[in-house]
Design a protein that fits this description.
- This protein is mostly beta strands and about 270 residues long.
- It has 2 domains: about 20-60 and about 170-260, Jelly Rolls (Sandwich); about 70-160, no CATH class.
- The chain has 1 helix and 16 strands.
- It has one helix at about 25-30; strands spanning about 35-45, 50-55, 70-75, 85-95, 100-105, 115-120, 120-130, 140-150, 150-160, 170, 175-190, 195-205, 210-220, 220-235, 240-245, 250-260.
- The strands form 4 sheets. Strands 2, 10, 12, 13 and 15 form a 5-stranded antiparallel beta sheet that branches. It has a 4-stranded antiparallel beta sheet with strand order 1-16-11-14, with no helix packed on it. The protein has a 4-stranded antiparallel beta sheet with strand order 6-3-8-9, with no helix packed on it.
- Strand 4 and strand 5 (about 100-105) form a beta hairpin.
- The radius of gyration is 19 Å and the shape is globular.
- Mean pLDDT is about 95; it is low at about 5-10.
Length: about 270
């Protein structure tokens, strides 16, 4: 999760050091009040002829309607406080009021551990500490409902051993406006003639998802779109990338980048 430098009483939307350092670098360094950047990426290995969110569950992502305590568990018993795999993880997201929250959770293998916070959105899971294996031994989940062999009935976030916690979804926190600067995608399929359609979708608060940009990607090719004029997305809006393919069992990677800026009067 990005952090903000909160010195000053108004947003600093000007360079602080002049021509000696790019404004964008100063934002990344946390030197510009109320500004932060995010790069969100997702991987899906089973995209077919129906749209799916680009994340490792190969489904259209189902969002929480009310903030809930997350059950954190792993598919491996070795991901535990004294195990050889992951021992502690960081989870971050949004609370019931769309404010950013995060916490550290100590794992207990396939047995679920409840979060202290209630989450309306789960953004990311990161492994903080691990045993002799120096990595997660299994897939780590954040979800709700009954947990079977370490997998919750409803999944809202996954850290997979193959590619980490990658899901091309993000929600604009309360009091901010996000500005989408661009997105990219890669596509692969066993059929040389297969291709994919990648959709950048936004759901304003209280509304429904709408496709604001599309990208057609050929097999084995990566495509990208940069917005000369960044697209403004209001607070509490959901952003995600969805994909569909001309052939089943396609692999898709996708990412989008944005800067989000605290609204005037919200400091």
């Amino acid at each position: 999760m990005a952090t903000f430098n909160t010195t000053g009483v108004v947003n600093q939307s000007i360079s602080r050091i002049g021509v000696t350092e790019p404004f964008e670098l100063q934002v990344s360094r946390g030197q510009i009040t109320g500004h932060a950047v995010e790069l969100i990426s997702g991987v899906s290995g089973g995209v077919g002829t129906s749209y799916t969110t680009v994340w490792n569950q190969n489904t259209v992502y189902a969002y929480l309607s009310t903030a809930s305590v997350m059950k954190i568990s792993s598919s491996s018993a070795n991901d535990a406080a004294a195990g050889t795999g992951a021992r502690t993880i960081l989870i971050d997201g949004l609370d019931a009021d769309y404010n950013q929250i995060s916490e550290t959770v100590t794992l207990n293998g396939q047995t679920a551990v409840n979060t202290a916070n209630s989450y309306l959105r789960v953004f990311h899971i990161a492994v903080l500490t691990a045993g002799t294996g120096e990595a997660a031994a299994g897939s780590i989940y954040a979800g709700t409902g009954a947990v079977t062999s370490g997998v919750p009935a409803v999944i809202y976030g996954v850290y997979a051993t193959a590619n980490g916690a990658t899901a091309a979804i993000w929600t604009v926190p309360a009091g901010y406006t996000a500005y989408l600067t661009g997105y990219a995608s890669g596509y692969s399929n066993a059929s040389a003639t297969a291709n994919g359609t990648i959709s950048l979708c936004v759901r304003p608060f209280g509304s429904v998802f709408d496709t604001i940009s599309q990208l057609r990607v050929s097999n084995g090719v990566q495509g990208w779109i940069a917005f000369q004029y960044p697209i403004a997305v209001a607070e509490k809006s959901d952003i995600e990338i969805r994909a569909t393919s001309s052939a089943a069992s396609s692999g898709v990677t996708a990412e989008f980048q944005l800067v989000y800026i605290k609204n005037e009067g919200a400091l």
